[in-house]
Design goal:
mainly alpha; Amino acid/polyamine transporter I; globular
């Protein structure tokens, strides 16, 4: 039986920090923030503070658990250690399904961006995109880390440049900041309920920082790298989200933001920044490729980890001797993502819609498991954990209020029950045998 330490341990601290950073800054930040701005108005900054607080608290839970969980453990291993095999099973499969779906969605997004420039059939281009990112991940774990490092560096640089332009515009132009904030329906144009309703949109754009705990298992010092990555979350959220969103709100009226169109590009065009459209197109493409890259990586490692504990077929434990990669787990995850992408064409209103709807509930469920795990094995100083649970409950209530997101909670809850039943009736002896050395 393949042992866990046969995976490579070639990632370095700089890789882990940038992987965590890239997880927080996704394509949803550069485009998806438009929906939050148009719904919440100037007071949307409160929604960003609350969502950012939840992300920070959950990362704090992971940091605390990593110090108490024996061995080299990802967040999934932390949940299993704290709450037992049953919740480890459910957390693993819900997380795997979430990221398999994200890979399919991001593959569609990248293909759509490249279609005007590459004259090949859509399906062929989509396979080429997935094939290229799969090849990157098949080279070596360090190859994945290097690509993600530079993808994240480009995103960070884009935000720094945008912030610099924003502060320059505030100093060099007579911008009616007060009018932009208060004269287009007020600070709360759609009421307090809108601030609650926008939290899920903001929260999902911040998801992905937990990938660092998975990658840290293949680094030179798992516990230290998890601690360092999770410790910098508040700074990242404060600088990258709150500063940039505040700048957008000051520089242009929130009512000019169009959902589905980048508010960053709106600001740059408003001040006639040359090549703004091309630059933002490249940044958004890089952000989508980054999600693809990380998705392929994390799904393969989660499937490998599930196989370690007997929760997935033992064939996914096979590690290639030369590259020290779980090649079968990687290819199976990519294959599942191709199926997800295909359903967008073959069954967009049923299978694909259901898969996408599941991701929201799954994300909140796994966050809650981390908090409950922290409370169970480290009950002292529980205030942060209870606050995190309150924010998760707030996000669930917000999703239940909105008709367009209510189904995500309902279908997510149903799917979690199904996965729990699958774990319950899975032959226990077979699982234990698979997990034996």
């Amino acid at each position: 039986m393949t042992e866990p330490d046969q995976l490579a341990q070639s990632l370095r601290t700089r890789h882990i920090v940038m992987i965590a950073l890239g997880g927080v800054i996704g394509a949803g930040f550069f485009i998806g923030s438009s929906a939050a701005l148009s719904m919440g108005g100037p007071a949307v900054i409160v929604s960003y503070v609350l969502a950012g607080l939840l992300v920070w608290l959950v990362n704090s839970m992971m940091r605390d658990l990593s110090a108490l969980t024996p061995g080299r453990a990802s967040f999934l291993g932390q949940i299993r250690y704290a709450l037992g095999d049953r919740f480890g099973f459910v957390a693993g499969w819900t997380y795997w399904l979430t990221w398999v779906t994200v890979i399919g969605v991001e593959a569609i997004a990248v293909t759509s961006m490249l279609t005007p420039y590459i004259p090949v059939p859509y399906a062929v281009l989509e396979l080429l995109v997935l094939g290229a990112m799969t090849a990157v991940n098949l080279l070596s774990v360090k190859g994945y880390g290097e690509f993600e490092y530079w993808f994240s560096a480009i995103k960070v640089l884009a935000i720094i440049v945008f912030s610099g332009i924003g502060f320059w515009a505030l100093g060099a132009h007579s911008i009616p900041v007060k009018e932009n904030l208060f004269s287009h329906g007020g600070v709360l144009p759609h009421g307090l309920l809108a601030l609650l309703a926008v939290i899920p949109t903001v929260l999902f754009s911040m998801g992905g920082s937990e990938i660092a705990t998975v990658a840290a298992v293949e680094s030179d010092n798992t516990e230290r790298n998890i601690a360092r990555a999770t410790r910098t979350i508040p700074l990242r959220i404060g600088v990258f989200y709150l500063v940039t969103i505040s700048l957008i709100l000051c520089l242009v009226p929130w009512s000019d933001v169009v959902p589905g169109q980048s508010p960053f590009l709106l600001v740059l065009n408003r001040f006639h920044v040359p090549f703004a459209g091309l630059a933002m197109g490249i940044v958004i493409l890089v952000a989508a490729l980054s999600s693809l890259n990380s998705g392929i990586y994390v799904t393969s490692r989660i499937l490998y980890e599930l196989a370690e504990t007997g929760d997935a077929p033992s064939t996914f434990l096979v590690v290639e001797p030369k590259t020290q990669l779980p090649r079968r787990a990687l290819l199976a995850s990519v294959g599942a993502s191709i199926f997800v992408a295909a359903t967008a064409i073959l069954s967009p209103g049923l299978i694909f819609a259901v898969l996408v709807s599941l991701t929201g509930g799954f994300m909140l469920f796994n966050n809650a498991l981390l908090v409950f795990g922290r409370l169970k094995i480290m009950p002292q100083k529980p205030a942060g954990a209870y606050l995190a649970l309150a924010l998760i409950a707030m996000a669930i209530i917000a999703m239940m209020i909105q008709p367009e997101t209510r189904s995500q909670i309902e279908m997510g809850a149903f799917a979690i029950v199904v996965i729990l039943l699958a774990e319950r009736f899975l032959p226990r002896a077979k699982r234990l045998q698979n997990n034996a050395p």
